[in-house]
Amino acid sequence: MAATDGFSASGSDFRTRLQNWLPKIVLAPSFAIMVIFVYGFIAFTIYLSFTDSRMLPSYEWVGWQNYDRLFRIRQWDTSVVNLAIFASLYIVISTIIGLMLAIFLDQKIRGEGVLRPIFLYPMALSFIVTGTAWKWMLDPAIGLEATMRLWGWESFSFGWIKDGDMAIYTIVIAAVWQSSGFVMAMFLAGLRGIDNEILKAAQMDGASNWNLYRRIILPQLRPAFLSAFVILSHLAIKSYDLVVAMTDGGPGTSTWMPAVFMYEYTFTRNQMGIGASSAVIMLMTIAAIMVPYLYAELREKK
Amino acid sequence: MTMLKKLHMTAAVLALSTTTVAAQEVEVLHWWTSGGEAAAVGTLRDALSDGGVGWVDMPVAGGGGSDAMTVLRARVTAGDPPTAVQMLGFSIQDWAAEGALANLNDLAAEQGWADVVPEALQRFSTYEGNWVAAPVNVHSTNWVWANTALMEELGVEQPGSWDEFVSAMQAAQDAGYTALAHGGQAWQDATVFESMVMGVGGPEFYQASMVDLDPEALGSDMMVEAFQRMETLRGFVDDNFSGRDWNLASAMVINGDALFQIMGDWAKGEFVNAGLTAGEEFTCFRVPGTQDTVTFNSDQFAMFNVSDPAAQEAQTAMASAVMSPEFQITFNLVKGSVPARTDVSADQFDMCGQMGMEQLAEAAAGGTLFGSMAHGHANTPSVQNAMYDVITAHFNGEYDAETAAAELVTAVEIAQ
Amino acid sequence: MAVASTENAVRSSSVARAFVYLFLLLFALFYLLPFGIMLINSLKPLEEITGGGMVALPQNWTIEPWLSAWSTAQIGVQPTGLRPYFINSIMMAVPAVILSTVVGALNGYVLTKWRFRGDTLIFGLLLFSCFIPFQIVLIPMARVLGILQIAGTTPGLILVHFVYGIGFTTLYFRNYYAAFPTELVRAAQIDGAGFFQIFWRIMLPSSGPIIAVSFIWQFTNIWNDFLFGASFASGGSAPMTVALNNLVNSSTGVREYNVHFAGAIMAAAPTLLVYIVAGRYFVRGLMAGSVKG
Questions:
Q1: Which of A204, B223, C26, C181 could form a disulfide with B405 if both were Cys (CB 3.0 to 4.6 A apart)?
Q2: What are the tens digits of pLDDT across the range B106-123?
Q3: Phi and psi of C59, rounded to 5°?
Q4: Which of A100, A128, A150 sits opposite C245 (nearest CB)?
């Protein structure tokens, strides 16, 4: 990682030396804050995961006991399986919808200025708010089902949110609603950045629209795909508010996710050690996705 | 324990008094945020302000107090605990074990708390013989709330046994009503479940399985039967029960859509607020099979260590106000529960309230007063929540009764 | 820096265009639906919600729920409505957003124009901080706030949001400034301009779009945060989201759903406003660097 010094020092007087040190001085507070508040806290959590901490941190070392217990808790399995289902559907569907909206919106659409904020606004709302709204809409007794029946479609039935096997998919719906507009914005930005000359040249050569997108445009959107993937996957792993607001983990424990598990065990159940060990597993998962991405991303930019 | 002591020492050494509460003020963390409950707490605030003690309100709603407990942890870790915190059962013991609670012995001795508060409650209000919390009320959890008009219409008598209870519900279901109003939330499932355990196995079994956590009792045939009764009840619940709040379930009984609800006595507040009178439009009776026993939980104000003398004075004033017979009556009339003091007059309470006070006193004397598992008075929060998981998963059809009993053994073992 | 293409080279037939419009309109409906329902129900008397469906339009329009949510609804023991908490949120969000944006801009400037050995590693470490689950920091953070004597106060909350916002703002500004011609900076330096002069005179004037992105992102996240707000600033300094939760999640009593919906919209209003006013800069700002590889 041979970073080049932006400027060569031309003099040795105080002002120049200060100028040379200024950038590092400016960056230093952020660096210090990060070391303490992020990596220090992570180290603390890793340490806690090997202790018998219950209600407050304790420093009794218990080795791998918390991890051993964690993997025997059924709700942890449920949480991990749910996360796998949720994350894959959420990422794929949000990306597809976001991409399609972006491509369609990029067709010199009249009213783009009106549509774009409509697609984007869910990002502005708190999960606490939208989760509640979705809970209402999907509730068979008062929401969509009741309305359809009121309008005469008697056999209409949509009770997923009350069904342990299907409830996780309702969370996918709400989450996709929340973030697909943001994905759209990223793709739109990517599309607008593509050089039109290349497209024109390809069209001269008789490329069809389909081929144009498949061979030229989509490959150029690779960075946007990557950014979308990273942002969506970390949102998926961290999802907590939405689950709590929509189903509170229910019916039963069927919509638990690792972030819910961690909060529950750390703060409700006074089993901070197990909570910390689940946090460490989550962190490692995030690191497994993020580190290769960051590495590739930053190397490229050097 | 060590952590907290270290915190205190550090705080002392650095002379960091982070207490934001000014002189003669109490800061109270609670989750009584709904209309009736907030009004009940309001009476305490008024009583204190008459005595010149200010009230700094710190409500954190949601999660049956779990969010409030998270906040509390942050505050205590920061070395800045609130003056008093609404708290349940074993949490008080846990905080006392961390050395975070104040000592109320002087006040308790002066006012003779030990003579008027039932032993079973003192088990939670005291830690190693020292008073650390002031009990506000006693709720009992093994009640059935019933719509009397509907009972009459269906020709149903007040059931005295499990079989009669089932046939009454069958009658309601056959007539097109919802037999049992229930909300599918873990704590509600558990509230019903503890009555099933008590009903199937009686006090000894309840003690062995829910309090002593004996693996044999937890995995026994009686436990399987308790789970089977849950399955029977599941058949009488409407399809839309999942996630419903308990007060909406009460509303179903109030409106005559449902016959029974199994719920603690806080449900009474809903009936009363709807303009119904106990013994007339609605009635209450113990869950069939648990008649001679009472499972209880008790809201208490745990008093935290505050260093400032003025704050300590305010804290003492608050504890004294909480324990005063006047407040105990006013508060519990609003809240639907019964006073934690057994020496206050029952005159102002309605039929269900009087029945509750009487049965509480009997159970306390006869040794059949047990802490509620569903409300953190039978075992620690980690065990309690581990039980929740199994009960709610079973009630939602994830396990059959045998598997559930086996899971219960494992879950409790991991949680200990 | 790319400039928005005013011309798209892809041609399409009119049938296809009709389909495109239909698709977009359907999705617009899908996106509007939840908010529309919240709005409708906030303008109904309670009986209409509990008695009828929630999708029907109000028969009797009323703004009573809004007034109640704003100034008289019971939050805890006090019937104050959401107003004081709204002010708390403003007092918290504005300084935190400004601070984290300023620091992010300076970091981005250093990391792209004043590079030194190991800067990429520092950036990587900063960036990773965006992705940690915030629950794990609650307990140690509480301890730190206690030591700093700002536990349970608005300044404490500002610090927390500032700390965990730096990663994102640095990311945005760094990617944006990476596309900024370094020659200009170098030329200015030869002319004798110093570190801050260059930042102030050359970088900042062209940073509009990315400031907008950073501002929108930070404001949205900070305003909508519940976890930190609930843990570190409850009581009198609680932010809007915590008060809203106290209003909506009360455990007993009659649920005034219309008031809850009005409160929810109020809680969402500032961020919505920001999106509507500054939203068009968002795509422009994203385009200008932050999603480029």
A1: B223
A2: 999 999 999 999 888 999
A3: -85, -40
A4: A128
Beta-carbon contacts of residue B390 (< 8 Å; ≥ 6 apart): B399, B404, B407, B408, B411
**Domain encompassing residue B74:** 2-140+297-354
B114: Cβ contacts below 8 Å, ≥ 6 apart? B108, B122
Q: Is the pLDDT of residue C124 over 60?
A: yes
Judge if B60 and B193 occupy the same domain.
no
Question: Shortest CA distance to B293 belongs to which of B392, B196, B167, B395?
Answer: B196
- Helix (H) / strand (E) element for C86: namely helix C83-113
User: Quick one: B81 and B169 in the same domain?
Assistant: no
**B272 and B247 housed in the same domain:** yes
Sites in chain B below the pLDDT cut of 50: 1-22
Closest CA to B305 of B135, B152, B146, B82: B82
Q: Is residue B359 part of a domain?
A: no
Please indicate, yes or no, if residue B221 is contained in any of the structural domains: yes
Reference C88, options C77, C99, C96; nearest CA is C96
Q: How far is CA A107 from CA A64, B73, C11, C21, C121, in A?
A: 57, 54, 8, 10, 41
CA C208 – CA C178 distance, rounded (Å): 15
Specify the DSSP class assigned to residue B18: -
Q: What pLDDT sits at residue B9?
A: 43
Structural domain contains residue B201: yes
Domain C-terminal end among B354, B375, B395: B354
C131 and A CB contact within 8 Å: yes
Cβ(B132)–Cβ(B126) below 8 Å? yes
Q: Please give the model's pTM, rounded to 2 decimal places.
A: 0.83
The proportion of chain A whose per-residue pLDDT surpasses 70, expressed as a percent, equals: 95
Q: Which residues of C touch B80 (CB under 8 A)?
A: 146, 151-152
Interchain pair C20, A104: CB under 8 A: yes
User: Mind telling me how many Å the CA of A242 is from chain C's nearest CA?
Assistant: 11
3-state secondary structure A14-55: HHHHHHHHHHHHHHHHHHHHHHHHHHHHHHHHHHHCCECCCC
Is there a contact between B20 and C153 if contact means CB atoms under 8 Å apart? yes
Residue at a domain's end among B305, B330, B354: B354
pLDDT of residue C242: 84
Q: Are residues B243 and B388 in the same domain?
A: yes
Q: Quick check: bond before A251 cis, omega within 30?
A: yes
Q: What is the pLDDT of residues C177-221, one digit of tens each?
A: 888 888 888 898 888 888 888 899 889 998 888 898 889 889 988
Give CA separation, B181 vs A142, B234, C184, in Å. 17, 10, 73
**Complex-level ipTM:** 0.81
| Structural domains in chain B (count) | 2
**What is the residue type of C152?**
G
Residues B280 and B173 both lie in one domain:
yes
Is there a single domain that holds both residue B291 and residue B301?
no
Q: In one letter, which amino acid is B67?
A: D
Any idea what the CATH number is for the domain that residue B273 is in? 3.40.190.10
Q: Domain for residue B360, yes or no? A: no
Calculate how close chain C gets to B10, using CA atoms only, in Å. 9
Residues 6+ apart with CB under 8 A from B159: B165, B167, B168, B285, B288
CA angle C271, C22, A182 (to 5 degrees): 30
Burial class of residue C21 in the structure, from the number of CB atoms within 10 Å of its CB (0-12 exposed, 13-18 middle, 19+ buried): middle
Same domain, B37 and B121: yes
Sign of CA dihedral A266, A270, A276, A278: negative
